[in-house]
Structure formats: structure tokens, C-alpha cells
Amino acid sequence: MTKNFDNLVIILLAGGIGNRLNKQTSKQLIYYNNETILEKNIIRFKKYIKNVPIQVVSNEKDITKVNEIHNKHNILLPVLGGKERHESVYNALVAIEKFNPQYVLIHDAARPLISSDVIKRLLEYCDKNITCVVPTLNLTDSIRSVSKKIIKDVVNRQDKVLVQTPQLCNYKLLINAHKKSKKVYEDESSLFLSNEMKVIAIEGDPLTLKITYQKDLKLLEPHLCVSNVKYITKIGNGFDIHRFDIKKSADKNFIHLGGIKINNINSLIGHSDADVLLHAITDSILGIINKGDIGKLFPPSDNKWKNANSSLFLKHASIMLKKEKGRINNIDTVIICEKPKILNYSQKIVENIGRILDINPKKISIKGKTSESMGFIGRQEGIAAMAITSAQIPEIILDD
């Protein structure tokens, strides 16, 4: 929404304690994906309406935390609310008087799933001379009056609706109505109606459910856990090659391949343990997160890595990937050599790499190829390995 709404201020009511929720933490300060419910309100309003002041009303118990949220999200300094909702609204109306707004958008922070469509429908009235506009839901269930758990009467649901927030209100009319009123009102629409003023209904959204009881929180949890991050697939490739030690040292008549020790074969020459497969996989993971290559992170000029177990390199790359919130989809590798016969060791290698990366071994493919006796590999002078790793990496969604 690119239109400038310089005649509008948003009021977020976050003063409730939430006793009926049976939680020590106020419902507006419960965390999901490292964001409080209050913050989710702020983020959504900032997403839908740019550069509009946001005034939060807090209770005294939560004011320190709400002040931190005020600093983090660059909103107005919070004000303390009263014992009743209408007192909290009035305190906010007084606090924003300096902005001389034409309209205020008042919302219960306990309704964190604010619909962009509802906001659009409300904002269409900012160019009109209105008293109050509220989102409503049509009733679909039958209604009965009840007393002491006994149903007393049938209530006709025709022309009856459920009222939600946010509610768009004429600022001057609302603050004057509060000053004159001596009664307690549920919301702004009820205050205006008591003064025989016109209240306009627009279509609301069933997901803008108010969190009152634990079951409400459970219903909304799947939506509250959705972050503003989507995952994209990225692919990295790696390649490594090492030559055999033709000296045939009797005490090093083995190689490490995929972290598995394979005996009765000339050792490979390298600064570390020369595990071509783990090196290739490590480079493929580093490629996904744009962190260079194995030589950059573990340079052969550093004696600390002399004869090092290459599992350390792969584990480190895996940790770096996890810090970026990356998740491996699969790893596909090819080992090119005349010997050893890869098929004899592939299952052990797969299981070992699965342990190192803490992933299901079924995500790992190990294939062996010869070079048909051609070139230096065909002459059994060395081993090469290629690896391709696919992973899911989060990408921030840029709001339209």
C-alpha cells in the first residue's frame, strides 16, 4: 500500500494480562519464531501501512519489555493503560493528540493475524467523512440464550454479526465521546452506537481470532509459527584430487575415503589425511553458503591441519550451513579411481557421512567410476572425487 496516510495513527492495545489463558506471560508477549505476539502485530501493520505512527498501550508489569520493543521497531513510546479497555483507549488518544490525526485505527494486540484485505477495506474510508468502520463476520451457527447451562430461548441470527478489530474511528468524535461517557464500553463501535452515531460494517476475516483461552492459542499456533522467510533451493559443487604416494611406505599402506579407512592400498599425499571425498563434499556445502573453499578455511600452510581428520572440515562446513538455517536435501558424489572398488565400501561411507552431517544416509549417493585405464587415474596414480549438494536456504520475503 503505497498511499500516504498522514492523517492516521495506529493504536495497539496490549495492556491485558490474559488470566483466562492460564500463562504467567501476558499473551501479547508470548514468543513465536523469536517474535512476540505484540511484535507480530507491529510488523504486520508496518508491512501494510507505511510510515504511520504506532502507539502501544501496555500494562505496568510489561512496560519494560514493551519499551524494548518500542526501541527495536522504532514506534512511539508506550503509554500505560487503565483497568478497563476504554480507559486504555482514552490514554492512547490523549498521548497521540500532538499528531492531530483525523482517524485512528484501534486494534487488540490479542488478534495477531491481521488481514491485508481487511486493512485495505478500512483504509478506503480514510478519504471519507465517517464516524467508525468495523470489520464483522456473519454468523453461521445457530444462536441460543442460556442461563446456568440451560438453553432458554432461540435467538434469530438474521442481521447479527460478530465484531472484530481493527476499528477505524474519527479521532475527534471518539475522544469527545470518551470525555462525555461515564459507562464502560466493549469497543469503539459500542461507544459510538450508544451516542446514536453511524457505524459502518465491512467484511472481516475469520483468522483475526482474538486470543482469550488456551484453545484459541492452539488454533492460531500454526499461523503464528509461520515466519517471513521462505526457503529456496541452492546447489553447490565440489571437486578434489590427490595422488598416490608411490614410495609404498609399509606403515601407511591405507587411505581415508569418506572417513573410512581402506587398507592394502598406497596412501594419498596431502596436508591433511587427503580424503578426496570429504574434501569435495565440504567444498560443495561451502559453495551453497558462499564461504569460499576448504583451502581458504583450512589452509595447507597452517601446520594445525597437518594430518588432520577431514571429518573435522566437513563437520565445520555443516555447522556453518546450520547457522545459515540451511537444510541438506541430498548429496550426490562420484569417486573416480581404478582402485579401490568403491562398491565394496559405499554403504559404510554413506553411513559415516550421514553420522558426520547428522542427516539421513538415504540423502547421500556414492558412485564409483573408473577412467577406463586412461590418464593418470587410469595409470593408478591418484583418485578424484566430485560432489553436488542441494540444500534449502532461507530467503527473506520482500513485502510488496
Tell me about this structure.
With 400 residues, the protein is α/β, with parallel strands linked by helices. Helix 11 (346-357) links the parallel strand 16 and strand 17. The mean pLDDT is 90. It is elongated and about 100 Å long. It contains 12 helices and 18 strands. It has helices at 37-48, 63-73, 85-95, 116-123, 171-180, 188-194, 214-224, 276-288, 294-297, 311-323, 346-357, 375-378; strands spanning 8-14, 31-32, 35-36, 54-58, 79-80, 103-108, 132-138, 143-147, 150-155, 161-163, 167-170, 199-203, 229-243, 254-257, 260-263, 327-336, 364-369, 382-396. 37% of the residues are buried. The strands form 5 sheets. Strands 1, 4, 5, 6, 7, 10, 11 and 12 form an 8-stranded mixed β-sheet that branches. It folds into 2 domains: 8-224, Spore Coat Polysaccharide Biosynthesis Protein SpsA, Chain A, CATH 3.90.550.10; 229-396, 2-Layer Sandwich (60s Ribosomal Protein L30, Chain: A), CATH 3.30.1330. Helix 3 (85-95) packs across helix 5 (171-180) and helix 8 packs parallel to helix 10 (311-323).
